[in-house]
Design a protein that fits this description.
This is Four helix bundle protein. With 121 residues, this protein is an all-alpha fold. Helices cover 71% and strands 0% of the residues.
Length: 121
């Protein structure tokens, strides 16, 4: 059995979210220059928000406070999902590696949130 996480970096959900951020940056580097302040910036901000909100929620003491940050992370993940669709539709790059990673982060985040919610019952 795993010992409880003592730092947000110990969370598998954060580790996967961080991998998603890195992949989002790598993909957005290939976007046209005209997207520097558009899609590139928005996509990066949303991806970073996922990992950052997981990190911030980790040290919150109350269950409701923790879950609020994890819910914001889930919202940013869905925003990122849209940016992947847009990237694909604009033919700006290959999103095939990012979609499964986004799905994995989403499932892990949902499971982690459920565990937090149930531990308060």
């Amino acid at each position: 059995m795993r010992s409880p996480a003592t730092r947000f970096e110990d969370l598998v959900v954060w580790q996967k979210a961080h991998q998603f951020v890195l992949a989002a940056y790598r993909l957005s580097w290939t976007f046209p220059r005209t997207e520097a302040y558009g899609l590139s910036s928005q996509f990066r901000r949303a991806a970073v928000s996922v990992a950052a909100n997981i990190a911030e929620g980790f040290k919150k003491r109350g269950t409701e406070d923790k879950l609020r940050f994890y819910n914001i992370a889930q919202g940013s993940l869905e925003e990122s999902r849209y940016y992947l669709i847009l990237t694909m539709d604009l033919d700006y790059g290959d999103v095939s590696k990012l979609i499964p990673l986004l799905e994995e982060v989403s499932k892990l985040l949902e499971a982690y949130s459920r565990t937090i919610r149930n531990s308060d019952s």
